[in-house]
Amino acid sequence: MFEKIREDVSVVFDRDPAARNTFEILTAYPGLHAVMFHRMAHWLWLAGAKWPARMISHIARWLTGIEIHPGAVIGRRFFIDHGMGVVIGETAVIGDDCTLYHGVTLGGTSWQKGKRHPTLANDVVVGAGAKVLGPIEIGSGARIGSNAVVVRSVPENSTVVGVPGRLIERQDDPPDTEHRERIASKMGFDAYGATADAPDPVAHAINCMLDHVHVMEAKMQRMCEAMQEMGFEPGDEELPELGSCEIISTAEELHKMQLEEAQSER
């Protein structure tokens, strides 16, 4: 038991740069406290002392804000960073060297008895606020992005983001993005907020739109050139610059409506 506690403390040093010394970790890290309580509750659960195990789990939840059912199986070197709002269900299985952040739920999608919670293989990281639901398997080395909702199994060494969770396909050879940057600069925004290691599905959709606009511009240019060769002048009307279009955000419109309502009430 003391060997596992020593491992749990060393894991905090490895995964949390804010950790300063062992005394601080033992006294001020609720994630470590929750794991220690769970190991005791799980031992009682396996021994048949169900009610004492549930009471220990209940006390741990009250002290740490982390709810781990005593029936859950947790491997070695498990780390919960921050921890508030973490929920781990009865039939959840967590492998070695896994990391969970605050607000994570390893929950079920059925009221039927039996296996109804996810299984995490070794070296899995689940970001803050993510929900992993159902008797699914998360492969070794997988990464679950913050606030993702995962209801399907995830292969090993992959990344899932979004709602519902979607696998990110990594490309060894990045596409030519010069035309994207040109069109995006005209429109007055940057669609590259996500890095290549953690792409954003919204940014990907915007990039596809920019690619489509680029292809349409090229086709229109060729059509105009063909029409000029046949003696037809398509006209010299100039299209408005994209950068000159005013874009009013939803928040600004809502604020304006609230001001108008307040003035009308007066």
Helix-strand makeup class: alpha/beta
Which architecture of the largest domain would the CATH scheme give at its second level?
3 Solenoid
The CATH homologous superfamily of the largest domain is termed: Hexapeptide repeat proteins
Rg, nearest Å: 27 Å
Helix and strand sequence? HHHHEEEEEEEEEEEEEEEHHH
Q: Please tally the helical runs, counting DSSP H or I stretches of 4 or more residues.
A: 7
Distance between termini? 69 Å
Instruction: Just give the CATH class of the largest domain.
Output: Mainly Beta
Low-confidence segments, given as residue ranges, are 187-197, 243-251
The largest sheet has its strands arranged as 3-6-9-12-14-15
**CATH fold naming of the largest domain:** UDP N-Acetylglucosamine Acyltransferase, domain 1
Tell me the strand percentage band: 5-15%
Work out the number of β strands. 15
| Arithmetic mean of pLDDT | 81
Please specify the SSE layout and strand pairing.
Elements: H1 2-15, H2 22-28, H3 30-46, H4 50-64, E1 67-68, E2 73-74, E3 79-80, E4 87-88, E5 93-94, E6 99-100, E7 105-107, E8 119-120, E9 125-126, E10 131-133, E11 137-138, E12 143-144, E13 149-150, E14 159-161, E15 166-167, H5 178-187, H6 201-229, H7 250-265
Parallel strand pairs: 1-4, 2-5, 3-6, 4-7, 5-8, 6-9, 7-10, 8-11, 9-12, 10-13, 12-14
Antiparallel strand pairs: 14-15
Helix pairs in contact: 3-4, 5-6
